[in-house]
Design goal:
The chain is α/β, with parallel strands linked by helices. The protein has 15 helices and 15 strands. The protein is globular.
Length: about 375
């Protein structure tokens, strides 16, 4: 968690990994056309932030809004299958628009479509996170949207504010930026009450703060302040600060970063890594056990990952991404974490060097049984050095 910040522009200045959520109302005209001039200006902002060494992810709405026009569906209320068809058409045009505008800055984009299950299920969560991490390491910007072509009402996020928060939580982002048609949180709807109080910094999302959320605006938007507050709770509880900023004008990110425009800052109440470790330690049941040697015990105590070479034997029934215990040879619990291989694969590579994984399993897997980011010490104290 970035600390010592007191304003929106400081949050943008200090954040290293930022998720930017863009709503349909900002990106798409009423006739279904993409606002290319606005998108070009946003791409310029993103390029500027990247030049400062920041990693950027984009959670973008707009596929249904774009696709419905090209399929001749107009502005009528759509059935589920019509929404899915519109998303299938619009997503192609949306991805091409991002690709074209960011190519002006020699930035590679990638497309990731997620469902609620991809962020809630442990294995799919791990797969999605690893894919996103790899893309970021390779310098690409992930363009993320809900997979509307297959999602049903029972398994939908319902809006991309919450999707943005889930993604930020998944990849340990420092900051979630919700670009909206309003510049932050007010005590009441400022469109109805010109005397409504503006909040520049929100230290905690209390019931009083939740009560300030009004109804969503008419149009393509499915969110409104209600979903933004919900997203804020998800993000801040996971160690990620959140901004609500007005995105209607050109270059909205730089306007906030330069202190030219205000935005409401919701402060996180824990660090991203601390929140993730707490989740692993306290809310996941164990599906198996891996027993480790004294060398691995020493490495774990220094905050290192668990490698196959340190594993002695394995028990249980688990698959990649499941939570397992780590025990010493006396049967004492040392740690727990999310394992990178199935139980059968762990049994085969126990005691082997990471360089031998490909020869043993027939494919080049990850070097660690459990990466240190997915591991928390529960019965072993962390040592320095």
């Amino acid at each position: 968690m970035i600390s010592g910040i007191n304003s929106a522009h400081e949050a943008l200045e200090k954040a290293k990994r930022i998720v930017v959520k863009i709503g349909s109302a900002l990106l798409v005209e009423d006739n279904g056309a993409i606002r290319s001039k606005w998108l070009d200006a946003l791409a310029d902002d993103i390029a500027a932030l990247r030049d400062q060494g920041k990693e950027i992810l984009i959670v973008s709405s707009g596929a249904i809004a774009v696709g419905r026009t090209h399929l001749g569906l107009g502005l009528k209320s759509l059935k589920l299958e019509e929404k899915q068809a519109a998303a299938a058409t619009g997503q192609i045009k949306l991805a091409h628009a991002y690709q074209s505008t960011l190519a002006r800055h020699d930035i590679t984009v990638s497309q990731i479509l997620l469902t609620l299950e991809d962020t809630e299920g442990r294995r799919r969560h791990l797969n999605a996170r690893n894919t996103i991490e790899t893309l970021l390491k390779l310098g690409a910007i992930p363009i993320i949207n809900e997979n509307d072509t297959i999602a049903t009402s029972e398994i939908r996020f319902g809006d991309n504010d919450r999707l943005g928060a889930r993604v930020a939580t998944m990849i340990g982002a420092d900051l979630l930026v919700l670009l909206s048609d309003i510049d932050g949180l007010y005590s009441d709807d400022p469109r109805k009450d010109p005397d409504a109080t503006y909040f520049s910094v929100i230290n905690a999302i209390t019931p009083e703060i939740e009560d300030m959320a009004g109804e969503p605006p008419v149009g393509y938007s499915s969110g409104g302040m209600i979903t933004k507050i919900t997203a804020g709770k998800i993000a801040t509880d996971s160690g990620c600060h959140m901004l609500i900023a007005n995105g209607k004008e050109l270059n909205p990110l730089m306007a906030v970063a330069n202190g030219q425009k205000r935005a409401s800052l919701f402060l996180a109440n824990t660090a991203p890594q601390a929140a993730r470790k707490s989740w692993i330690a306290g809310s996941l049941k164990s599906d198996g056990v891996v027993v480790v040697d004294d060398g691995a015990v020493k490495a774990l105590s220094k905050g290192r990952s668990l490698l196959p070479a340190g594993a002695v034997r394995v028990a249980g029934s688990f698959r990649r991404g499941d939570a397992i215990l780590i025990e010493n040879q006396s049967g004492e619990e040392l740690a727990r974490g999310l394992v990178g291989y199935n139980v059968e694969e762990v049994a085969l590579i126990c005691g082997k060097r990471s360089s031998e994984i490909e020869k043993t399993l027939g494919y080049e897997g990850r070097e660690e049984l459990i990466h240190r980011d997915d591991l928390v010490l529960t019965g072993l104290k962390r040592k320095k050095g």
